[in-house]
Design a protein that fits this description.
InterPro entries: DHS-like_NAD/FAD-binding_dom, NAD-dep_sirtuin_deacylases, Sirtuin, Sirtuin_cat_small_dom_sf, Sirtuin_class_III, Ssirtuin_cat_dom. This protein has 231 residues and is of the alpha/beta class. It contains ten helices and eight strands. The structure holds adenosine-5-diphosphoribose.
Length: 231
């Protein structure tokens, strides 16, 4: 195991058993809300309060959820292999951090941050944004959720891509592979010689077949996968 560089891409499925809704499963977030209304800059421009309320509600819900065994297993993997492990999450919840992951990139942003449209500051944020609070950095009242919407550039793409190109193993956990660039990372890793794995409730029809597929709930299959890696 020593020296093996692992990139783990996680999606909403890793947080499902913690009680955080996914997007595209039955009763997922995109069943109750139109993406164009709550996850695009145009939707925000059209009705900012509707968008702020959508993310305020999801931010508040974080207080009632806990990391599950899958999040904890990834933190254990990092504890054992250190900087050879990087978790790239599409999720905007804070469950990886709360489970102990440190080498972590939130490519779609974080519910627990706001972003100032005026000065670009990204302050940690707990409360609601719907009341147009002042930016702690510049004082203007142009804070929005620090979540990457459709049509916007995800965060830290260079760092992610160089890690994907350099890794020996790439695992996609709990993601439908519906959204790029995240959905293209498995094929990119494979093209550069990495062994690719998918851990998902149901095998997804990935554009490039994974070398290994483990099906089942993340809280069961991820700890087993980490045990196997560390054995
Ligand atoms: N264990 C493992 N996998 C699960 C579980 C579970 N308990 N429950 C659901 N899944 C899997 C589903 O099979 C599906 O493949 O998690 C995946 C959830 O897919 P999506 O809801 O599409 O979530 P995600 O892949 O993270 O979406 C990517 O789309 O809407 C945007 O920005 C949003 O980051 C999000 C991106």
């Amino acid at each position: 195991m020593d020296g093996m560089r692992i990139v783990v891409l996680t999606g909403a499925g890793i947080s499902a058993e913690s009680g955080v809704p996914t997007f595209r499963d039955a009763d997922g977030l995109w069943e109750g809300h139109r993406v164009e209304d709550v996850a695009t800059p145009e939707g925000f421009a059209r009705d900012p309060d509707r968008v702020q309320r959508f993310y305020d509600e999801r931010r508040r819900a974080l207080a009632a959820v806990e990391p599950n065994a899958a999040h904890r297993a990834l933190a254990r993997l990092e504890g054992a292999l250190g900087d050879d492990v990087l978790v790239v999450t599409q999720n905007v919840d804070d469950l990886h951090e709360r489970a102990g992951s440190v080498n972590l990139v939130h490519m779609h942003g974080e519910l627990r941050r706001a972003r100032c449209a005026a000065c670009g500051a990204r302050p940690a944020w707990e409360g609601d944004l719907v009341g147009r609070p002042a930016c702690p950095a510049c004082g203007r009242r142009e804070l929005r959720p620090d979540v990457v919407w459709f049509g916007e550039l995800p965060y830290e793409l260079d760092r992610i891509e160089s890690a994907v190109l350099a890794c020996d193993a790439f695992a996609a956990i709990g993601t439908s592979g519906a959204v790029y660039p995240a959905a293209g990372y498995a094929a990119l890793a494979a093209a550069f010689g990495a062994r690719t794995m998918e851990l998902n409730l149901l095998p997804t029809a990935a554009d490039v077949p994974f070398d290994e597929v483990r099906a089942g709930p993340a809280s069961v299959i991820v700890p087993r996968w980490v045990d196997d890696l560390l054995s």
